[in-house]
Design brief:
It is globular and about 40 Å long. The chain is built from no helices and eleven strands. The termini are far apart. 31% of the residues are buried. The strands form two sheets. Strands 2, 4, 5, 6, 9, 10 and 11 form a seven-stranded mixed beta sheet that branches. A four-stranded antiparallel beta sheet has the order 1-3-8-7, with no helix packed on it. By secondary structure, the chain is mostly beta strands.
Length: 124
């Protein structure tokens, strides 16, 4: 049973930084994994921000390239999103997600099976 729980959201001024965390449990990492961060602004569709494959390959949406970094801890129990130089357009609800899709299909455009409940990020 896979569970994901996000935390670390909050309100910051433009140009500031935040680190989001997602505690992952019940996932069979030995069989491969694909994890990602999504966000949804008010009135807009949910969009993929960044993905991380079982072999460590990362893919970023152009809107966050060179500003955000996706990573995990050594135990692979926590997923992170380092957010630097935040902009007002980064405001939204951020979700972590996971799927068993292997690295060839592990991108922000992939379909994800497991989702967290979200954490709010507001940039002013």
């Amino acid at each position: 049973h896979v569970q994901l729980v996000e935390s670390g959201g909050g309100s910051v001024e433009a140009g500031g930084s935040l680190r989001l965390s997602c505690v992952v449990s019940g996932y069979a990492y030995s069989d491969g994994y694909c994890v990602a961060w999504f966000r949804q602004a008010p009135g807009k569709e949910r969009e993929g921000v960044a993905s991380l494959s079982e072999i460590g390959q990362t893919v970023y949406d152009d809107s966050v390239q060179n500003r955000f970094t996706i990573s995990t801890d050594d135990a692979k129990t926590t997923l992170y999103l380092e957010m630097d130089n935040l902009k007002p357009e980064d405001t939204g609800m951020y979700y972590c997600a996971a799927t068993q899709t292997r690295w060839l299909q592990c991108t922000p455009k992939a379909t994800y099976t497991y989702w967290g409940q979200g954490t709010q990020v507001t940039v002013s």
